[in-house]
Amino acid sequence: MTDWCQDFPRTKASFPLLDVLSTADSTNRVVSERDTGSDEHRVVLTSHQTAGRGRLGRQWLSQPGESLALSVFFPPLSSSHLSWFPLVTGACLVGALRASGVTQAQMKWPNDVLVEGGKLAGILCESLPSGRVVAGIGLNIEFQGDDEPVPGSVALSGFVGVTHAVVDSIVSDTLVGLRRWSETDPQDAEMKARALVDPVLATLGQQVSIHEMDGEVWSGTAEGLSPEGHLVVTTSSGVARVVVASDVRHLRQ
Question: Which stretches in the chain have pLDDT values below 50?
């Protein structure tokens, strides 16, 4: 496999508090424990995460060297920023991937990055008791052998040549874009978030099925996003329902 996880000079130039670990159970946990009360952005990444977590309690499974696990620590954000933070994190990653040659990268609401229908990356953002926020990213880089570790997943190497410089560029561009948006005036947070998210969100206009936490399953058309970034789905009877934390699946059209 490609030795892509070395130093990250481009990322470190913008984020001096960068730690590259040989292994970690969870980069979100590691970076959270390094909360010193400073408003500086701290970044932790590894090519071997042993207890990665996804949304809704799922696991992020991979072998050493197969994926990038990255977490970045942000100072307290306004409520306007917080509600859009996971979506903007994904949108910034999609932008970085497209700039690196993965031109078909797009988002599935609220936290998956897809290429040709396969999952390339996932996002997990967490708020801490201190008010600070952690953005976690899991990005598949290069699978060992012919089988994906999780059915339906794809790797970066399937769409672009994987090099140390390419991965460094994707990380740097993602984090710089996210930090730039986080520093906007709270009154402009939603408008600027929509400008980043709407063009890359494949869920909009799709027929989707919604799997609620209580077991209810229903379907409709994803019409748009609420002022908080929640998904607005219109049922076949014309009722608009707002989806906040459910599992959303695209239906074939």
Answer: 55-57, 253
- What is the phi-psi region of residue 24: left when phi exceeds 0, alpha when psi lies from -120 to 50, beta otherwise? beta
Region at 205 (left for phi over 0; alpha for psi -120 to 50; beta for the rest): left
What distance, in Å, lies between the first and last C-alpha atoms of the chain? 37
Domain 9-197: give its CATH superfamily.
Bira Bifunctional Protein; Domain 2 (3.30.930.10)
Which alpha helices (H) appear in the chain, and where do they start and end?
Answer: 9-14, 27-33, 79-99, 164-182, 189-197
* Ramachandran angles phi, psi of 110, nearest 5°: -105, -5
Rounded Cα distance between 233 and 240, Å, is: 6
Residue-range domain boundaries for the chain: 9-197, 203-250
Beta bridge partners of 115: 118
pLDDT at 1: 62
Residue type, 178: L
Structure tokens that stand for 117 in this block: 């229908």
**Per-residue b or e along 92-113, where b marks 16 or more CB atoms closer than 10 Å to that residue's CB:** bbbbbbeebebeebbbbbbbbb
Query: pTM for the full model?
Result: 0.93
In CATH terms, the fold of domain 203-250 is: SH3 type barrels. (2.30.30)
For 138-152, b/e burial (b = at least 16 CB within 10 A) is bbbbbbeeeebbeee
